[in-house]
Amino acid sequence: MHDMDKLKAQSLSRRMTATLRYACALAASAAAVGLAACSHGSHGQAGSTWDPQAAAAYLDHREGWWRQWPGSARDHGTFCVSCHTALPYALARNRLDTMAHGAAASQEEIALTSDVLKRVRLWNETKPYYTDRNSGPDKSAQSRGTEAVLDALILASDDARTGHLSADTRAAFDDMWALQETTGRAAGAWAWLDFGLQPWEIKDAQYYGAAMAALAVGMAPDDYRSTPAIQASLQRLRGYLDRDYSAQPLHQRLALLWAATRLPGLLDSARRQSIINDALRAQNWDGGWSLYALAPSYRRGRSILRLWSDGYATGFVTLVLQRAGVPRSNPQLKRGLSWLLTHQRLPQGRWAASSINEWHNPANPVSGFMSDAATAYAVLSLTAPAESPSAGPAPSALQARR
User: Fold this and answer.
1) d(CA 343, CA 68)
2) Ranges of each domain in the chain
3) I need a labelling partner for 76 at 20 to 30 A (CA). Which of 42, 67, 162, 249 fits?
4) Rounded Cα–Cα distance for residues 174 and 186 (Å)
5) What contacts 24+ positions apart, CB below 8 Å, involve 88-91?
6) Cα–Cα distance between 130 and 59 in angstroms, integer?
């Protein structure tokens, strides 16, 4: 692991580079938004009181640290695409490029995409992220299933910007479908990493993984969802998401709602409304949400009871609610967006969140994993497009409290 002096130097260097690159474009974008907190203009930004430049610098720094950290290194000169740092970065970072009026991708964006492409192209040669021998039973299969879904989602998200599905993304989807479970209780899903860690690496996160697979299919351009060769696999996926719905915590149901905004037919109107109502009921008094309320942790019979609002839960919930069609005039959504606008930590640029699984020394860079996800999802929420009409009528605050 790099010593702290080197980390600080890297952070300063990357922050200065990002600032020089984005200063004019992002400042112009923020000025154009220039509205009261939680209002939105023609481009759908939620407000102007947060600092996109600082968020970009933080995300780039953290992704760079993750890429170079020995703990993430894998074979063939690649690194692990993590649910906490790399995936959120891939989904959110290009939103800041868009705000900067099409600014070129950052060094870390290019490095992450190149890593995913390399592992897709060398799929039959690379080793799983974790193996049975080194990490315990079923970890090889769990690693492969998780990686296949994340690769497809990252590349589909990237292709959605260009409007064309690349051959590499098609190959990533082929790898994903080849690993789909076809029999048993989990038919339609994928083996998913389970280290007993909420919210992404625990047994019930298999449902989250299936929802991310559906999101990837929904994001893919060129009407990929209608490809004849995937219809049986897609039907199995729909069946699993429907069959296991009632057993899921709110976090996983929100992931499904997100996927349903991209892939029609995953939720009926009653379930869609139920998820929205449950999410609004879980809101804290200060307008934010806590991860514990979405995905309670009982690791080894214990839990870290963190009931206060955090950046990850608030960013994730407000993003999904907006994507699901809850209007920004909804009082509870407005308060959630206000919470985000007032809780970016400057000058670092991050939104804070902490593990509900175990305590980490703040001096250890590993302690920042949840803040990595928090910052990315806060960016996704604050740059979300105007609400989709596909979600049906949104509840009032009173209805949600019943």
Assistant:
1) 29
2) 1-78+273-402, 128-267
3) 162
4) 19
5) 88/372, 88/373, 88/375, 88/376, 88/377, 88/380, 89/59, 89/62, 89/63, 89/372, 89/376, 90/116, 90/154, 90/157, 90/158, 91/153, 91/154, 91/157, 91/376, 91/380
6) 25
Contacts of 320 (CB under 8 A, 6+ apart): 254, 255, 257, 258, 261, 279
Q: Which of 166, 125, 167, 129 is nearest to 148 (CA)?
A: 129
Determine contact, residues 276/261, Cβ cutoff 8 Å. Answer: no
Q: CA-CA distance, 225 to 181, in Å (whole number)?
A: 19
CB 218 within 8 A of CB 241: no
327: left (phi over 0), alpha (psi -120 to 50) or beta: beta
Q: What is the 3-state secondary structure (H, E, C) of 97-145?
A: HHHCCCCCCCHHHHHHHHHHHHHHHCCCCCCCCCCHHHHCCCHHHHHHH
**Could you list the pLDDT tens digit for every one of the 402 residues in the chain?**
444 334 333 443 443 344 334 333 443 333 333 333 333 333 334 445 899 999 999 999 999 999 999 999 999 999 999 999 999 999 999 888 877 766 788 999 999 999 999 999 999 999 999 999 999 999 999 999 999 999 999 999 999 999 999 999 999 999 999 999 999 999 999 999 999 888 999 998 999 999 999 999 999 999 999 999 999 999 999 999 999 999 999 999 999 999 999 999 999 999 999 999 999 999 999 999 999 999 875 544 455 667 899 999 999 999 999 999 999 999 999 999 999 999 999 999 999 998 888 878 788 888 899 999 999 999 999 999 865 544 343 433 333 333
Q: Give yes or no for a contact between 92 and 377, defined as CB atoms under 8 angstroms apart.
A: yes
Residue 264: strand, helix, or coil: coil
Give 78's strand partners: 74
The kind and range of the H/E element at 163 are: none
Could you give the 3-state DSSP secondary structure of residue 172?
helix
Contact (CB, 8 A) for 155 and 166: yes
Distance (Å, rounded) from C-alpha 157 to C-alpha 215?
9
Amino acid at residue number 227 = T
What are the tokens at 157?
């998200």
Distance, CA of 303 to chain centre: 23
Question: Could you tell me where the DSSP H helices lie in 186-307?
Answer: 205-219, 231-243, 250-260, 269-281, 291-294
